[in-house]
Structure formats: C-alpha cells, structure tokens
Amino acid sequence: MKTKFGNYLEKMMMKNNYTLEYIAKQTDSSLSVVGHYRKGIRIPKDDFVERFIEKFIKTDKEADEIRYIVAYDRTPDLIKRRLDENNQDEKNKQMAEIISLPVLGKAAAGLGHINFEDNTRMEVLASISTTELPKDAFLVEVSGDSMFPTLSDGDLVIINPVQKQMRMVEGKVCVFSYHDQTYIKRLKINKNEVRLVSDNSDKKRYSDIVISDEELEYLKCYGAVIESRRKH
C-alpha cells in the first residue's frame, strides 16, 4: 500500500508540474531517494521532511499536516487499522493526535538487571487515540532480547499503570520490579507461585524467574504493555 506522503508528493508534483529532478535539487537529495518517497517504497527521514517544508510549504498548518502524515506512515499497521475503523463512524470518530509520554527508564528483557532511571525524557508518539490512552501512561525502553519476537531490544513500550493487580494482568506482558531490579516479562500465576516468563524460545538462556512464599512481597507490577514501538 502506498504511503500517505507518497500520495501527497505525487499530487503536489502533478499540480505544479514539478519533476523528480527539481524536487531532488531543491531538497538536496538524490533522484532515486525522492523517487522511492513518491512511490511509497520508503518513508522520508526527518531531515528530508524539514528541507521539503522549507522549500515548498508556506503555512505552519500545512507543515504540521505533512509531519503528521509522515508520522502516520511510520505507525504500526495495527494502530492504523484501529484509526481507520474509528473513521468509519463519524459520530464516534476519535481524533488521533501527536502526543508525548515520559520514558521512565529501562526494563530488562534479558539477563541484565536495569533499574528505573532517575532522569526521565519525553518521547513523541503519533496516531495514538487519546481516549484509549490511560491517564498517567508512560514508556519503558526494552533492554535485551528474552522477549523476542514479541519485543525487541530497544523497543519503547507503552505501559498502562491501571493494570497492575497480579490477577488482572495474568498472561500479559508487564513491567515488574523484583528486589529493586526491573524486568519486562510475561506473568504466569500458579497455585503457590508466580513466574516471570520470557517469550524467547531459548529457555536455556532465558529461564523463568520463579517467586513464591515470602519473596512475593518484593515483587511489584508497574502495569501491562499496551503496545510497542520498534526502532525504524
């Protein structure tokens, strides 16, 4: 499926009789790269977008529109489908917007043990329906590959802090602290124990973390994963 930016660029070129060579020259880009952007084979990088806006866009409103459609093109298909479904019903249409969430630190998805960091940063996300985003939601960066293929090293995951009661999140991927070390694992509850399970099939490297009896008081759930954003 062609990208939104590809459609935009093609229509703009037809309307103004611009050639690929002209766009490439004005944006200090190669002809092949601009051709890929027009065909929707590739999603433009931020530096190209800003040069394009500087050369061809006159209003702040249209500039924001272009940044939005590029952000939309980078959004996972699941979220796009959700947005498109909302758009089918105008009465219940929920407007998505570009928002920012705090990254509270890293959680170990491997063998390492990484605490939440003291200093947070903000991360911009696009195409999130704010009506579905829980209050006080936050981001955590995944460290390690024990949750592959569900999560990859470096992924940013959105955490729902409302879902942190153990019985409520059984079977889900959550962020936990255990003895002051932070993990991102799938929760399994047995009769007398809790298991923090890795999705990676290599169980020799990534064995379950088994917690029972008085050790349970050192286990805390911060919330369940809503979705992940992979590095591009």
- Widest sheet, order of strands: 2-1-3-4-9-5-6-7-8
User: How much of the sequence is in beta strands?
Assistant: 25-35%
Quaternary state of the chains: single chain
Largest sheet: 9 strands, mixed
Order of helices and strands: HHHHHHEEEEEEEEE
Number of strands: 9
Residue stretches low in confidence (pLDDT < 50, at least 5 long) are: 90-96
Radius of gyration: 22 Å
Distance between the termini: 18 Å
Question: What general form does the structure show?
Answer: elongated
What structural class do helix, strand and pairing data support?
alpha+beta
Mean pLDDT: 83
Separate helix tally: 6
Helix content: 25-40%
Q: How would you summarize the topology of this molecule?
A:
Elements: H1 4-16, H2 20-26, H3 31-39, H4 46-56, H5 60-73, H6 77-88, E1 96-108, E2 116-129, E3 138-143, E4 156-160, E5 173-178, E6 181-189, E7 193-197, E8 209-212, E9 219-229
Write a structural description.
- This protein is α+β, with helices and mostly antiparallel strands and 232 residues long.
- The chain is elongated and about 75 Å long.
- Mean pLDDT is 83; it is low at 90-96.
- It contains 6 helices and 9 strands; from the N terminus they run H-H-H-H-H-H-E-E-E-E-E-E-E-E-E.
- The chain has a 9-stranded mixed sheet.
- Helix 1 packs across helix 3 and helix 2 (20-26) crosses helix 3.
